[in-house]
Automatic annotation (TrEMBL), chain A:
Name of the protein in question: Exoribonuclease phosphorolytic domain-containing protein
Key words, A-Z: Exosome, Nucleus, rRNA processing
Keyword Cell wall biogenesis/degradation belongs to the record: no
Gene (UniProt): LOC112281407
Gene Ontology biological process: rRNA processing
UniProtKB/TrEMBL annotation, chain B:
InterPro entries: ExoRNase_PH_dom1, ExoRNase_PH_dom2, ExoRNase_PH_dom2_sf, Exosome_comp_Rrp42_subfam, PNPase/RNase_PH_dom_sf, Ribosomal_Su5_D2-typ_SF, Rrp43
Protein name according to UniProt: Ribosomal RNA-processing protein 43
Cellular component terms (Gene Ontology): cytoplasmic exosome (RNase complex); nuclear exosome (RNase complex); nucleolus
This protein's record includes keyword rRNA processing: yes
Gene Ontology molecular functions: mRNA 3'-UTR AU-rich region binding
Gene: LOC112296127
Keyword Methyltransferase attributed: no
Source organism of this protein record: Physcomitrium patens (Spreading-leaved earth moss)
GO biological process: exonucleolytic trimming to generate mature 3'-end of 5.8S rRNA from tricistronic rRNA transcript (SSU-rRNA, 5.8S rRNA, LSU-rRNA); nuclear mRNA surveillance; nuclear polyadenylation-dependent rRNA catabolic process; rRNA catabolic process; TRAMP-dependent tRNA surveillance pathway; U1 snRNA 3'-end processing; U4 snRNA 3'-end processing; U5 snRNA 3'-end processing
Subcellular location: Cytoplasm; Nucleus, Nucleolus
Lineage: Eukaryota, Viridiplantae, Streptophyta, Embryophyta, Bryophyta
Gene3D superfamilies xrefs: GHMP Kinase, N-terminal domain
Entry similarity comment: Belongs to the RNase PH family.
Length: 191, 319
């Protein structure tokens, strides 16, 4: 019953929880990861194929979805799958007094009023600098690719989370880019 | 509606065929031509949701039930109550267990035996919305702290899947929980919870005082749950510069980006769910979606209050 597509690659995501059977949380996370990866993977380059991303949770200490997304993106780079960009995923929480804080741990997630996970497209380093980098007046990396929230918050608090996470995502994308460059350099030297 | 205007009646038939063929072969372009005139193929303006109806009490054997239709999307929710021993971690709280299913009847794309992917997503987001919004005050489900409490099994069935499933499912679940009546019960000395057959609210209170005097039993009269802010969802899709509210299944499958915003009647944001997609959402899109959702919350709230009045007569509504 595999869904083959003669025009493009299909992306399959499997999310394995640390323990227990897969429930609706895992299936929903699979859908979120898959649809986020559809943004960067050039599926039309590989018709009639499947790209399987398998995520195994080793330890959950908060910000699980963001961590999984960053891992999936790094794994795709390591696999050499052609991508049209990278993703940077961050998460933040909102305390009961309306304070926004980044990267909650598990105890913090359980105690806070609400927490949000965001995925942003990484800032592009274009070989052709004249190409417009803005969409609707704001940079591409400010666009929210994915947003998953838990808990209720005020609308202003949500916007404040978006602002803070955009800044954090810029740092994450810088770090992932430099890590990838380091590891590729290492590989080349090793050959 | 034809794509080329002013056709003579003799050619009307063939023109209709052409439109259908165009729609099948180039669905995206078919939609784009409509969107550029700020309208959808079915004539609906871009930001208007489909006609919504709520019917409470559709299932007589359930403790609470609701049938919701948004356009063709139909959801049936039923609530059944059972007595459980509350957990030691929260001895004065009951529980709510939500289950969402898409039987094969709802869509030709759903095959028996293999749950549709949408079913998992809606199920997860539905439980998330009910838990995050604190819609049900679990302490109201307590009968005797530490000994007995109600668990409300909320089952939502999709009878027709035509887009915006989460919107309809959430409304059905919330409506069924609002319609829910906890039955009158008394707790015997041995700790068994026994239903009281012939008591309504007033008689229940009378029995209450007599019981307290004579046998020192605990009696709970028939009651509804206290009303609180209702969470209401709106799914939006966007294509290039156009934002459409409440998409049908066809629109959801063709257009690029979809997201669901859930807000409650007190203006809080319960959930902002955007699971990836081909396009990222700009700040302007986010603001527009939240504005559309606020309007939708007011709209659905008034539809619901009318249905509630009809079903439950002139009961006082706690705000």
């Amino acid at each position: 019953m595999k869904k083959e597509n003669a025009e493009r690659a299909i992306i399959e995501v499997v999310w394995r929880a640390k323990s227990g059977l897969s429930g609706s949380y895992e299936k929903d996370a699979e859908v979120v990861v898959r649809r986020s990866l559809e943004y960067i993977i050039l599926t039309a380059l590989h018709p009639n194929t499947a790209i399987s991303v398998i995520l195994q949770v080793i330890n959950d200490d908060g910000s699980l979805l963001a961590c999984a997304m960053n891992a999936a993106c790094a794994a795709l780079v390591d696999a050499g799958i052609p991508l049209n960009g990278l993703l940077s995923a961050v998460s933040c929480g909102v305390t009961h007094d309306g304070q926004v804080f980044l990267d909650p741990t598990k105890p913090e997630e359980q105690k806070c009023k609400a927490y949000v996970s965001f995925v942003f497209p990484s800032r592009r380093l274009s070989a052709v600098p004249e190409l417009p980098a803005d969409v609707d007046g704001e940079p591409v990396e400010y666009g929210i690719l994915t947003s998953v929230t838990r808990g209720a918050m005020e609308v202003e608090e949500y916007f404040s989370c978006v602002e803070n996470c955009r800044a954090a995502a810029a740092k994450v994308s810088e770090f992932s880019r430099s890590s990838i460059e380091q590891s590729l350099k290492g590989n080349r030297d090793g050959c | 509606m034809t794509i080329t205007g002013g056709i003579a009646e003799a050619d009307a038939a063939s023109a209709t065929m052409e439109v259908e063929a165009y729609k099948r072969l180039y669905p995206l372009q078919f939609y784009e031509r409509h969107l550029d005139s700020d309208v959808r193929p079915d004539g609906r303006p871009l930001t208007r949701a489909r006609p919504t109806s709520v019917n409470l009490g559709s299932i007589a054997t359930a403790d609470g039930s609701a049938l919701v239709k948004i356009g063709n999307t139909t959801m049936l929710a039923g609530v059944k109550l059972e007595v459980i021993t509350p957990s030691t971690a929260s001895p004065n709280q009951g529980q709510v267990a939500v289950d969402f299913q898409m039987p094969s009847i709802c869509s030709p794309l759903v095959r028996p035996g293999r749950p549709a992917e949408a079913a998992w997503v809606v199920s997860e987001q539905l439980s998330n919305a009910l838990v995050s919004s604190n819609f049900v005050n679990l302490q109201q489900l307590c009968i005797v702290p530490g000994k007995a409490a109600w668990i409300a099994y909320v089952d939502v069935y999709c009878l027709d899947a035509d887009g915006s499933l989460l919107d309809a499912a959430l409304l059905a679940a919330v409506a069924a929980l609002t319609h829910l009546q906890l039955p009158a019960v008394k707790v015997t000395e041995t700790g068994r919870v026994v239903p009281l057959k012939n008591h309504n609210g007033d008689a229940g209170q009378e029995v209450d005082s007599i019981a307290k005097k004579n046998e020192d039993q605990i009696v709970k009269s028939r009651q509804r749950l206290e009303r609180s802010s209702m969470p209401i969802a709106l799914t939006c899709v966007s294509h290039r510069k156009h934002l459409l509210a409440d998409p049908s299944a066809e629109e959801e499958s063709i257009l690029q980006m979809s997201l669901t915003v859930i807000m409650d009647t007190s203006g809080r944001l319960i959930s902002f769910y955007k699971p990836g997609g081909a396009v990222a959402a700009t700040s302007a899109t986010v603001k527009d979606c939240i504005e559309l959702t606020k309007k939708r919350v007011a709209e659905v709230n008034s539809i619901f209050e009318e249905a509630y009045e009809e079903a439950c007569g002139t009961e006082m509504m706690v705000e």
